[in-house]
Amino acid sequence: MNFFDHLGRIDRRIIYVLLFLAVAVPLMKPLGLPTMIEPMTQQAFNQVNQLKQGDVLIFAMDTSVAYKADLYAGSIAIVQHALDRGARVLIPAVVQDGPMVADDLVKYFQKKGIKYGDRLVNLGFVPGGETAVAAMARDFPATFPKDYYGNSTAGMPAMAGVKTAKDFTLVVAAAVNITPGGLDWVKQVQGPYGTPLVFLSGAMLVPQFVPYLQSGQLKGMLKGISGSAQYETLLKQPGAATASMEGQSMAHSLVIILIVLGNLSFILGAAARKARGVR
C-alpha cells in the first residue's frame, strides 16, 4: 500500500481532532489573520470616531437574546469606542428583551471601571415601536423617567441636557427587525431631525437596509458578526467577533485542504494501482 492509499484511509477521528483544533485555537486566542474592511464598516467606524467629550450616543438595543451571538461583540466594540472618545452612551430599546442584552453590556463595562449613570445608562424597554421612537425623539426625559433598574434618570450625569433628538450626536441601532426598531429610527429620528444613524444589523437584513445606506440616510452599517470583526480590527482590539471569524476561516481552510488531498489520493492512488496492474 503506497502513500496515497494510506492518505485515502486516514482515520476519521484524526480529521475530527484537526477540525476541533482549527476552531478552538482562534477562539482561545485570535491569530491576527488579515481582515478585509468593507466600506460600510469603515463608514460606521468613522462616525463613532467623530464623537467628542460629552457627546451623546444613543445605542438602541433593538435586538433579542436570540441574536446576541450575532450582534453582542459588535455592541461591545462600538460602545467601547464611544466611551474611549469620551461620549455618553444611553441605551433604550423598543424590542422586549433588548434591555436584558443591554444589562449584560452594562455589567461588562462596569467590570472595566465605567461608573453606571455617569456615562452609561440602560434605559429599558418602551412599547410601541415607531410610536415609541417618536416619543423619545420628541421628549426623551418624559419617555424615560426611570431606567431599567427603577432608578430615577433625572439626576444622572449621562442624561444631562438630553431633551429631544436634536441633542443626540449619533444613533446606533442594533437592528434585527424592519420594525420595531430598524426603519423606525430612519423615519422618526434621522429624517425629521437629521441625526446621523448607523446600523449594527443582523446579516439577513443587510440587503433591505443597503438602499438606505446608498441614499445617505444611514452613515454606516455593520453586517452581523463579520462586520463586528472588521470593527474590532479597525479599533485594534480583537475580541469575540474576530475569534469567531478566524475559527470559521480556519475550519473552511481545513475542509478545502482535506478535499484537495482526498481527490489527490483517489486520482494518484488509482494511477499507481493501475501501473502495478492492481484494480
Structural commentary:
With 279 residues, the chain is of the alpha/beta class. The protein folds into two domains: 3-30 and 244-275; 39-237, Rossmann fold, CATH 3.40.50.720. Helices cover 52% and strands 11% of the residues. It has helices at residues 3-8, 12-28, 39-49, 68-84, 98-111, 130-138, 140-143, 183-193, 206-214, 224-235, 240-275; strands at 56-60, 88-93, 120-125, 170-175, 197-201, 220-223. It has a six-stranded parallel β-sheet with strand order 3-2-1-4-5-6, with helices on both faces. Helix 8 links the parallel strand 4 (170-175) and strand 5 (197-201). Helix 4 (68-84) packs across helix 5 and helix 10 packs across helix 11 (240-275). It starts with a helix and ends with a helix. The model has no long low-confidence stretch (mean pLDDT 88).
Q: Descriptors for this entry?
A:
279 residues; alpha/beta; Rossmann fold; 2 domains; six-stranded parallel β-sheet; 11 helices
Number of strands: 6
The SSE string, one letter per element, is: HHHEHEHEHHEHEHEHH
Largest sheet: 6 strands, parallel
CATH topology of the largest domain: Rossmann fold
Task: Flag low-confidence runs.
Answer: none
Please tally the helical runs, counting DSSP H or I stretches of 4 or more residues.
11
Output the CATH class name of the largest domain: Alpha Beta
CATH architecture of the largest domain: 3-Layer(aba) Sandwich
Strand content: 5-15%
Strand order of the largest sheet: 3-2-1-4-5-6
Structural class: alpha/beta
Q: Percent range for helical residues?
A: 40-55%
Label the overall shape.
elongated
**What is the straight-line distance between the termini?**
13 Å
Our count of domains comes out at 2
Rounded mean pLDDT is 88
Rg, Å, rounded? 24 Å
CATH H-tier superfamily of the largest domain: NAD(P)-binding Rossmann-like Domain
